[in-house]
C-alpha cells in the first residue's frame, strides 16, 4: 500500500500487480506520477515562500524598530512635544493606497501605489475609471486640489535628518507589509491547492486499486 | 533652597546655587535609571531618591514618556518662578529674556495646531509652562503674521521681535517656519545686545554662549534646509547677525548645498572644526548631538565665575539637557533598545 499521505513518494507503484486492465492501470499510474510531480513542485514552492516570508517579516520588524528609534532621536533634537499627536490632524489623506488584484483564480496580490496617481494601465479592464483616461478628452483631468501633502511637513519645513530617516524606514516597511500580505495569501492558496491535489491523488489511487 | 540666600547673592552666588547644582543628576544616577523588569519602574524609583523626589507620584498608570516630560517641565518652571519672584532689575529683565524662547515655541505650537484643526485646550496643555502668557489662547485666531502682531502679541514681551516678520502672507507651514526662525533671530540679537550692554562678568559669560547659539542656529538651519522648498535667499535671512560666523561665514554658509560644503565652512573656525569632525564615527553622533555636548561644556564653565546672571541661564539650560537625557533613557526603555541608552550627554 502506498503511503497516501506523503506526496514525496515519487516512485511509481507497480502498474497494478499484473491484475486488472494493463493499459488502464498504466494510464492511472502515469497520471499519479504527474500528480505527484506537481505536488512536489507545489510543496517546494510553498517551502520557498515560507522562507521568504520569514525573511521579510524579520526585515519589516527591523524597519519598524528603526523608524521608532529615529522618531525618538527627532524628539531629542526638536523637543518632545514637537513630534507627537499635536502635529497631525485626526483626519488624514493617505499618500499611498493598497491595490488588490487577482492574478490567478482565488489568488489575490497586493500592491502599494501612490494615491492621487492613476494606476498603470496593465492592471486590467476591471478598472473602469482608468479607461476614461484612455478615451479622448478635451482637457486633461483637473489636478486634484487635495494632492496629499508630505506628512514630513506636519512637523515643520526644517526638520532634522532623523525625522526623514524615520519616514524612509516606515515607507520601506509599508512596501514590505504589502509583499508579506501577498506572500501570506500565496501560501494559503498553495496550501489549499496542495490539499486539492492530495485529494485527487487519493481518488486516483483508490480508483486504481 | 536657603531662605535668606537672595540677600547674599552679591556676596556669594555660589550659596544660591549650591542646592541647584547638587540637584543635577550624576553619572551614577544615570546608570541606575537603566532598565529592568517593568518599564519605568526603576526610573521612577531611582528618581525618587534624587532631588526630583516624588514628582511622578500623582501620575496614573500607564506612565508615558510624554507625562514624564510634562512633569519635569512643571518642576523646572516652579524653580524658575522662585528665581523670578526674588529678582530685581536688571535680573528680572534677563529672566524675561530667557522665557521669550519658550514663548516663541508656544506661539508656533499653537499656530501649527490651528493648521491641523486641533482644539486650543489640547494644545495649551502641551505648551511649555515657562513660556506662558495671557494672550496665548487667542493665537490660533490669527490668519497672517501682521494680524498676529496687531491683535494678539503687541502687549507681550515678543512684540519687539516682530519688526522683520510683518507680512500679509497666509500662515501655511512654510510661513510658520519662516516666522519661527525670524522671531528667534530677532530675539537672540536683542538678548545679545542686552547682555553686551550690561557689560561686566555677565557679558563675559553670556556673550560667547549666545554667539555659539547664533552659530549653531545658522548651521542647523542650513543642514535642515537641504532638499526642502526653502530658497538660499530665504535661508540667509534666517541667520542671526552676530556670532563667529558673521558675516563671512554666514555668506559662505548661505551658498552651501550639502553637508560637506558646510563642513568646509566650519573648517575655517578653530572651535567648529573639531565639532564637525566628531560627527558620524562609530557612535553615530549627529551634528545636533555634538552641538548639545559643546553647549553643556560652556554652561558648566559658567559656574566658575562669580557675580553674574549667566548662572541662571546655564542652570536652566543644563536642566533642559538633563530632561532630554531622561526622556531619551525612557524612550530607550520603552522601545527596548538597551544598547542605545548610553547616548545621553553626561553633565556632572
From TrEMBL, chain A:
<comment type="subunit">
    <text>Accessory component of the multisubunit proton-transporting vacuolar (V)-ATPase protein pump.</text>
</comment>
<protein>
    <recommendedName>
        <fullName>Vacuolar ATPase assembly protein VMA22</fullName>
    </recommendedName>
</protein>
<dbReference type="GO" id="GO:0005764">
    <property type="term" value="C:lysosome"/>
</dbReference>
<dbReference type="GO" id="GO:0005793">
    <property type="term" value="C:endoplasmic reticulum-Golgi intermediate compartment"/>
</dbReference>
<dbReference type="GO" id="GO:1905146">
    <property type="term" value="P:lysosomal protein catabolic process"/>
</dbReference>
<keyword id="KW-0968">Cytoplasmic vesicle</keyword>
<feature type="coiled-coil region">
    <location>
        <begin position="36"/>
        <end position="63"/>
    </location>
</feature>
<dbReference type="GO" id="GO:0070072">
    <property type="term" value="P:vacuolar proton-transporting V-type ATPase complex assembly"/>
</dbReference>
<dbReference type="GO" id="GO:0016471">
    <property type="term" value="C:vacuolar proton-transporting V-type ATPase complex"/>
</dbReference>
<feature type="region of interest" description="Disordered">
    <location>
        <begin position="121"/>
        <end position="151"/>
    </location>
</feature>
<keyword id="KW-0967">Endosome</keyword>
<comment type="function">
    <text>Accessory component of the proton-transporting vacuolar (V)-ATPase protein pump involved in intracellular iron homeostasis. In aerobic conditions, required for intracellular iron homeostasis, thus triggering the activity of Fe(2+) prolyl hydroxylase (PHD) enzymes, and leading to HIF1A hydroxylation and subsequent proteasomal degradation. Necessary for endolysosomal acidification and lysosomal degradation. May be involved in Golgi homeostasis.</text>
</comment>
<dbReference type="InterPro" id="IPR040357">
    <property type="entry name" value="Vma22/CCDC115"/>
</dbReference>
<keyword id="KW-0256">Endoplasmic reticulum</keyword>
<keyword id="KW-0175">Coiled coil</keyword>
<dbReference type="GO" id="GO:0007042">
    <property type="term" value="P:lysosomal lumen acidification"/>
</dbReference>
<feature type="compositionally biased region" description="Basic and acidic residues">
    <location>
        <begin position="121"/>
        <end position="130"/>
    </location>
</feature>
<dbReference type="GO" id="GO:0051082">
    <property type="term" value="F:unfolded protein binding"/>
</dbReference>
<dbReference type="GO" id="GO:0036295">
    <property type="term" value="P:cellular response to increased oxygen levels"/>
</dbReference>
<dbReference type="Pfam" id="PF21730">
    <property type="entry name" value="Vma22_CCDC115"/>
</dbReference>
<keyword id="KW-0458">Lysosome</keyword>
<dbReference type="GO" id="GO:0030137">
    <property type="term" value="C:COPI-coated vesicle"/>
</dbReference>
From TrEMBL, chain B:
<dbReference type="InterPro" id="IPR002843">
    <property type="entry name" value="ATPase_V0-cplx_csu/dsu"/>
</dbReference>
<keyword id="KW-0375">Hydrogen ion transport</keyword>
<dbReference type="InterPro" id="IPR016727">
    <property type="entry name" value="ATPase_V0-cplx_dsu"/>
</dbReference>
<comment type="similarity">
    <text>Belongs to the V-ATPase V0D/AC39 subunit family.</text>
</comment>
<dbReference type="GO" id="GO:0005768">
    <property type="term" value="C:endosome"/>
</dbReference>
<dbReference type="InterPro" id="IPR036079">
    <property type="entry name" value="ATPase_csu/dsu_sf"/>
</dbReference>
<comment type="subunit">
    <text>V-ATPase is a heteromultimeric enzyme made up of two complexes: the ATP-hydrolytic V1 complex and the proton translocation V0 complex. The V1 complex consists of three catalytic AB heterodimers that form a heterohexamer, three peripheral stalks each consisting of EG heterodimers, one central rotor including subunits D and F, and the regulatory subunits C and H. The proton translocation complex V0 consists of the proton transport subunit a, a ring of proteolipid subunits c9c'', rotary subunit d, subunits e and f, and the accessory subunits ATP6AP1/Ac45 and ATP6AP2/PRR.</text>
</comment>
<dbReference type="GO" id="GO:0016471">
    <property type="term" value="C:vacuolar proton-transporting V-type ATPase complex"/>
</dbReference>
<dbReference type="GO" id="GO:0016324">
    <property type="term" value="C:apical plasma membrane"/>
</dbReference>
<dbReference type="GO" id="GO:0033179">
    <property type="term" value="C:proton-transporting V-type ATPase, V0 domain"/>
</dbReference>
<protein>
    <recommendedName>
        <fullName>V-type proton ATPase subunit</fullName>
    </recommendedName>
</protein>
<dbReference type="InterPro" id="IPR035067">
    <property type="entry name" value="V-type_ATPase_csu/dsu"/>
</dbReference>
<dbReference type="Pfam" id="PF01992">
    <property type="entry name" value="vATP-synt_AC39"/>
</dbReference>
<keyword id="KW-0813">Transport</keyword>
<comment type="function">
    <text>Subunit of the V0 complex of vacuolar(H+)-ATPase (V-ATPase), a multisubunit enzyme composed of a peripheral complex (V1) that hydrolyzes ATP and a membrane integral complex (V0) that translocates protons. V-ATPase is responsible for acidifying and maintaining the pH of intracellular compartments and in some cell types, is targeted to the plasma membrane, where it is responsible for acidifying the extracellular environment. May play a role in coupling of proton transport and ATP hydrolysis. Regulator of osteoclast fusion and bone formation.</text>
</comment>
<dbReference type="GO" id="GO:0046961">
    <property type="term" value="F:proton-transporting ATPase activity, rotational mechanism"/>
</dbReference>
<dbReference type="InterPro" id="IPR044911">
    <property type="entry name" value="V-type_ATPase_csu/dsu_dom_3"/>
</dbReference>
<keyword id="KW-0406">Ion transport</keyword>
<dbReference type="GO" id="GO:0030670">
    <property type="term" value="C:phagocytic vesicle membrane"/>
</dbReference>
Amino acid at each position: 500500500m502506498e503511503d497516501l499521505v506523503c506526496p514525496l513518494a515519487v516512485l511509481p507503484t507497480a502498474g497494478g500487480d499484473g491484475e486488472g486492465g494493463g493499459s488502464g492501470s498504466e494510464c492511472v499510474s502515469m497520471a499519479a506520477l504527474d500528480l505527484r510531480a506537481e505536488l512536489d513542485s507545489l510543496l517546494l514552492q510553498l517551502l520557498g515562500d515560507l522562507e521568504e516570508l520569514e525573511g521579510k517579516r524579520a526585515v519589516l520588524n527591523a524597519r519598524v524598530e528603526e523608524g521608532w528609534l529615529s522618531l525618538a532621536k527627532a524628539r531629542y533634537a526638536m523637543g518632545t512635544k514637537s513630534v507627537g499627536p499635536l502635529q497631525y490632524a485626526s483626519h488624514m489623506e493617505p499618500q499611498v493606497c493598497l491595490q488588490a488584484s487577482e492574478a490567478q483564480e482565488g489568488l489575490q496580490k497586493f500592491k502599494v501605489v501612490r494615491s492621487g496617481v492613476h494606476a498603470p494601465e496593465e492592471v486590467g479592464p476591471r478598472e473602469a475609471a482608468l479607461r476614461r483616461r484612455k478615451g479622448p478628452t478635451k482637457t486633461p483631468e483637473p489636478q486634484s486640489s487635495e494632492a496629499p501633502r508630505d506628512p514630513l511637513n506636519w512637523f515643520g519645513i526644517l526638520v532634522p535628518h532623523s525625522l526623514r530617516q524615520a519616514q524612509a524606514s516606515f515607507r520601506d516597511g509599508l512596501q514590505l507589509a504589502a509583499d508579506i500580505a501577498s506572500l501570506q495569501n500565496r501560501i494559503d492558496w498553495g496550501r489549499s491547492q496542495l490539499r486539492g491535489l492530495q485529494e485527487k491523488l487519493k481518488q486516483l489511487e483508490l480508483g486504481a486499486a | 533652597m536657603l531662605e535668606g540666600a537672595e540677600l547674599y547673592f552679591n556676596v556669594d552666588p555660589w550659596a544660591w546655587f549650591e542646592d541647584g547644582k547638587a540637584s543635577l543628576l550624576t553619572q551614577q544616577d544615570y546608570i541606575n535609571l537603566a532598565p529592568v523588569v517593568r518599564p519605568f519602574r526603576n526610573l521612577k524609583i531611582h528618581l525618587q531618591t534624587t532631588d526630583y523626589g516624588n514628582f511622578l507620584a500623582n501620575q496614573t498608570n500607564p506612565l508615558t514618556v510624554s507625562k514624564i516630560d510634562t512633569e519635569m517641565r512643571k518642576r523646572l518652571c516652579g524653580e524658575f518662578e522662585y528665581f523670578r519672584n526674588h529678582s530685581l532689575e536688571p535680573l528680572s529683565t534677563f529672566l524675561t529674556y530667557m522665557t521669550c524662547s519658550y514663548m516663541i515655541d508656544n506661539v508656533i505650537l499653537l499656530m501649527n495646531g490651528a493648521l491641523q484643526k486641533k482644539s486650543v485646550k489640547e494644545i495649551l496643555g502641551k505648551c511649555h509652562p515657562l513660556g506662558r502668557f495671557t494672550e496665548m489662547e487667542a493665537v490660533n485666531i490669527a490668519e497672517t503674521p501682521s494680524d498676529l502682531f496687531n491683535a494678539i502679541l503687541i502687549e507681550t514681551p515678543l512684540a519687539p521681535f516682530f519688526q522683520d516678520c510683518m507680512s500679509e502672507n497666509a500662515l501655511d507651514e512654510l510661513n510658520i517656519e519662516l516666522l519661527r526662525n525670524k522671531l528667534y533671530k530677532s530675539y537672540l540679537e536683542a538678548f545679545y545686545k542686552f547682555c553686551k550692554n550690561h557689560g561686566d562678568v555677565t557679558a563675559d559669560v553670556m556673550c560667547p554662549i549666545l554667539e555659539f547659539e547664533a552659530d549653531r542656529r545658522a548651521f542647523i538651519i542650513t543642514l535642515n534646509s537641504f532638499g526642502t522648498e526653502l530658497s538660499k535667499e530665504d535661508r540667509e535671512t534666517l541667520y542671526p547677525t552676530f556670532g563667529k560666523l558673521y558675516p563671512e561665514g554666514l555668506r559662505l554658509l548661505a551658498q552651501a548645498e550639502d553637508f560637506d560644503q558646510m563642513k568646509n565652512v566650519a573648517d575655517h573656525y578653530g572651535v567648529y572644526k573639531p565639532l564637525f569632525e566628531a560627527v558620524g564615527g562609530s557612535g553615530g553622533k549627529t551634528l545636533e548631538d555634538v552641538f548639545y555636548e559643546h553647549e553643556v561644556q560652556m554652561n558648566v564653565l559658567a559656574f566658575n565665575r562669580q557675580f553674574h546672571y549667566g548662572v541662571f541661564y546655564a542652570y536652566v539650560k543644563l536642566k533642559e539637557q538633563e530632561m532630554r537625557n531622561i526622556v531619551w533613557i525612557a524612550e530607550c526603555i520603552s522601545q527596548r533598545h538597551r544598547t542605545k541608552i548610553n547616548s545621553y550627554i553626561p553633565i556632572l
